[in-house]
């Protein structure tokens, strides 16, 4: 019984001692946990392009609705709907029998008027010789008037013939410029009237093509201030413009600024910018929505990839950096600008600072990390730098 009383406390003390040793080992293990690896980019201040991404819509370079200028029945539709046509090419033929007859009548009237001129001229010449020897002054003046009347009749006949010829020419409805046609609204045999409300077809020139962009007046003021202060280098009027199409693909041609409206919408606070692009393959069609990236100039600063930055409730950019003792710290930037797939900042960063671009999602400020140098490619993917084998010469 006495032995039992002595053994029980001894076993309890041994168990407590074992638990204490295990707790100390666990604490030591936690303290020795390796630092989390993170990918970092070493910052360097350089001149970087400043870009604005703007929404836009494609608009035909030239557009016209084709309408008849004379009355008549459609005899021929000479184009294939939706096809390309050249300037001057016949699109529709209106029945021209009546107009051709009118031209013939006008030609006959002109010939009749022209015949009377030689006799009137000869009569005037004769009275000029006889005005002082038998012919009266009144007869001479009458002969002069007769000649003038004959000449006027000829001019009137020429004008009538010209008008008749114009109407005859208008029976052939031609394309005013190179372009692409739409569906025809009439068929052969339909009667059309001059300048009717309904267009026969619409012709669009889409090479080149316009892109109408919308920007805010706030951005315009900031851009002007940056240029005036010298922070932004380059002329926005010569900016290169690239396009992202509706399906996310990048258009393979670069456009140029064509014009900018000198007025701001009273309802939206925006103004319109028009860019022009070559479109030989007709990839861009009128009405398409696009996103345009406008390079307005260059500015000296540091690039923070979009994948490495977040924004707070005030819209300020923040990013995580590695300190000199390999600890995490968050920095917030009051101003930042878009530069391709990056943000550009000018304050709060120094050459050689290490920006965390991957692995920062689950670590907080003050956490110990193991930085691994990397780069961010044009697609926004992190590419770690190859490790150098120090053992090799």
Account of the protein in words:
By secondary structure, the protein is α+β, with helices and mostly antiparallel strands. The chain has three domains: 40-58 and 206-384, Efflux pump adaptor protein, beta barrel domain (Elongation Factor Tu (Ef-tu), domain 3, Beta Barrel); 68-95 and 171-198, OB fold (Dihydrolipoamide Acetyltransferase, E2P); 97-169, Helix hairpin bin (Helix Hairpins, Orthogonal Bundle). It is built from four helices and 21 strands. It has helices spanning 2-31, 97-130, 137-170, 217-229; strands at 36-42, 46-66, 72-77, 84-85, 90-94, 172-174, 179-181, 191-192, 201-216, 240-244, 255-260, 270-277, 289-305, 309-311, 317-322, 328-333, 337-339, 342-345, 354-358, 369-376, 382-384. The strands form three sheets. Strands 1, 14, 15, 16, 19, 20 and 21 form a seven-stranded mixed sheet that branches. It has a six-stranded antiparallel beta barrel with strand order 2-9-12-11-10-13. α2 packs antiparallel against α3. The protein starts with a helix and ends in a 9-residue tail after the last strand. Residues 1-8, 10-16, 25-30 and 388-393 have low confidence and may be disordered.
